[in-house]
């Protein structure tokens, strides 16, 4: 914090914990570091206690060692998505093309760019708020508005080495069961995967082979319970599918390779 705080740290932690914040100590540290003075800290604390997500309160999400700019309504990157970044970055080289589809904040693309300097990263989302946010985290001229592949420049067709996708995969009826921080603060289009949670994934898989380079990979984050069905979609589309689990972050990724 720019100026020393007069609010006792223990009091800050206790207030957060009483509001139901499971990681009260961590959140107290983030708030203290983000606030410029006591007045701002008090205002941030009030917003957090009222139920606003921590990331929106401080204006960023910590992800893969980066500070990712966030915005109201836009899907906040989850730590489990680091599994997707790790799997995608393996074997990528400078100058190759990566696409972050259903990009939200563009966190996946930004993390890949940080991991593989010189990578050509493009991104797209159907939500204008997400696109505006992603343009703060990625080269703005490479972030496009539109529904899945229709948003991408045609010159990328057949050139994509890695296509990373965290499409919404929550079944419609399960959205009501999500934590209020997601349910009440993220646009439904970023959460709703249809009746079985796989509607957007179906569209992603159906179009992937037209955009991937030979040997290119499609990586989709999904749940452990849905992973076999996601893999089945890829196999049916002619991709060699593999389910990858990352226990460190509790992440599940299905990788489909164009043979």
Mean pLDDT: 94
> Can you count the beta strands?
9
Unreliable runs: none
Q: How do the SSEs run, as a string of H and E? A: HHHHEEHEHEHEEHHEHEE
Largest sheet: 7 strands, mixed
Going across the biggest sheet, name each strand in turn. 5-4-3-6-7-9-8
Q: Strand portion, in percent?
A: 15-25%
Explain this structure to me?
It is a single chain. This protein has 259 residues and is of the alpha/beta class. It is built from 10 helices and 9 strands. The protein has helices spanning 9-18, 24-34, 38-49, 54-58, 82-89, 107-115, 128-137, 180-183, 199-211, 227-236; strands at 60-63, 66-69, 97-101, 120-125, 143-145, 160-165, 212-222, 239-246, 251-258. Helix 5 packs across helix 6. The model has no long low-confidence stretch (mean pLDDT 94).
In short:
The protein has 259 residues and is α/β, with parallel strands linked by helices.
Keywords:
single chain; 259 residues; alpha/beta; 10 helices; globular
Topology of this structure?
Blueprint: H1 9-18, H2 24-34, H3 38-49, H4 54-58, E1 60-63, E2 66-69, H5 82-89, E3 97-101, H6 107-115, E4 120-125, H7 128-137, E5 143-145, E6 160-165, H8 180-183, H9 199-211, E7 212-222, H10 227-236, E8 239-246, E9 251-258
Parallel strand pairs: 3-4, 3-6, 4-5, 6-7
Antiparallel strand pairs: 1-2, 7-9, 8-9
Helix pairs in contact: 1-2, 5-6
């Amino acid at each position: 914090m720019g100026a020393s705080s007069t609010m006792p740290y223990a009091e800050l932690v206790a207030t957060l914990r009483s509001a139901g914040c499971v990681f009260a100590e961590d959140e107290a540290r983030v708030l203290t570091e983000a606030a410029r003075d006591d007045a701002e800290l008090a205002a941030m604390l009030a917003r957090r206690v009222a139920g606003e997500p921590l990331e929106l309160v401080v204006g960023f999400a910590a992800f893969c060692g980066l500070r990712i700019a966030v915005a109201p309504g836009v899907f906040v990157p989850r730590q489990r998505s680091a599994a997707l970044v790790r799997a995608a970055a393996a074997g990528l080289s400078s100058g190759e093309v990566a696409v972050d589809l259903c990009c939200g904040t563009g966190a996946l693309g930004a993390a890949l760019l940080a991991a593989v300097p010189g990578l050509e990263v493009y991104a797209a989302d159907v939500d204008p708020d997400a696109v505006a946010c992603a343009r703060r985290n990625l080269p703005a001229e490479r972030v496009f508005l539109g529904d899945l592949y229709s948003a991408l420049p045609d010159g990328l067709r057949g050139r994509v080495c890695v296509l990373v996708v965290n499409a919404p995969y929550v079944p419609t009826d399960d959205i009501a069961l999500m934590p209020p921080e997601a349910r009440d603060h993220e646009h439904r289009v970023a959460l709703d995967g249809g009746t079985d949670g796989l509607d957007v994934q179906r569209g992603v898989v159906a179009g992937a082979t037209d955009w991937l380079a030979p040997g290119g990979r499609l990586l989709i984050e999904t749940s452990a319970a849905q992973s076999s069905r996601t893999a089945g979609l890829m196999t049916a589309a002619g991709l060699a599918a593999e389910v990858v689990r990352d226990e460190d972050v509790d992440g599940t990724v299905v990788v489909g390779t164009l043979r």
